[in-house]
Design goal:
Elements: E1 6-8, E2 15-16, E3 35-36, H1 38-42, H2 50-55, E4 62-65, E5 71-72, E6 92-93, H3 94-98, E7 103-107, E8 113-116, E9 120-123, H4 130-133, E10 144-149, E11 152-157, E12 164-166, E13 169-170, E14 177-178, E15 184-187, E16 201-206
Antiparallel strand pairs: 1-2, 1-3, 4-5, 4-6, 7-8, 7-16, 9-10, 10-11, 11-14, 12-13, 12-15, 15-16
Length: 209
């Protein structure tokens, strides 16, 4: 009697028909996933489970880390933990995802600071730093995204109504810009005749703590 064969999804452990190119449960790309049977499963020769892929990765293996912090296989399109769409997240090596360097946003007056200690951070009136930004009417609910890639921090404006400025220059909404130590970031405003706008927020980016 022949054993049925299937593809085990590396993200959610779903058993898929051999011909499937995407997981029928979580839509993870199954291209390149080995076709196995029950004997392979019980002998431990199948693909890694979610727990293995989240904890026991080799430091050089590529992974995708969701905004929630869960580490997924590089081909995953949805996070196995929270279900978030991660198809646009760039894979990075496991060590970079698991040991993110910490960076700092400090208000220009030095009275408030925020640590960027995750791979992806979104700030806004209804996102990170909302307690500080809630009174800033030029700041959108989700305004600016910071992404850490291989020890560098990239910034992108995600607001559809207001701009983000780096050193008083607007940054694009579709292309991440590399930040340098000491850059001034204006969330929702810039310097006009040397004056900052009260309705906006201004930070100095610090590459080291």
């Amino acid at each position: 009697m022949s054993l049925s064969k299937f593809k085990v999804c590396p993200a959610c452990d779903e058993r898929n028909p051999p011909a499937r190119l995407e997981c029928q449960k979580c839509e993870t790309d199954l291209t390149g996933i080995k076709i196995v049977d029950e004997n392979s499963i019980h002998s431990g020769k199948s693909v890694l489970s979610v727990e293995d892929s989240n904890i026991n990765n080799d430091n050089n293996e590529l992974v995708k880390q969701c905004d929630c912090g869960f580490i997924n296989p590089p081909q995953a399109r949805k996070c196995s933990s929270c279900g978030e769409d991660i198809s646009d997240i760039r894979p990075t090596n496991y060590q970079s995802a698991n040991e993110v360097n910490k960076f700092l946003l400090r208000t220009v007056d030095g009275k408030c600071s925020f640590t960027l200690d995750k791979v992806v951070t979104v700030i806004g009136r209804e996102a990170e730093m909302k307690d500080y930004l809630s009174a800033k009417s030029y700041v959108s609910r989700q305004h600016t995204k910071f992404t850490v890639v291989n020890g560098d921090v990239y910034i992108v404006n995600i607001s559809t109504t207001n701009s983000t400025f780096v050193n008083n220059m607007p940054i694009p909404s579709d292309t991440p810009s590399l930040l340098k130590n000491g850059d001034e970031i204006g969330i929702g405003g810039k310097l006009i005749n040397g004056n900052r706008q009260n309705e906006a927020a201004y930070f100095i980016f610090k590459a080291t703590l």
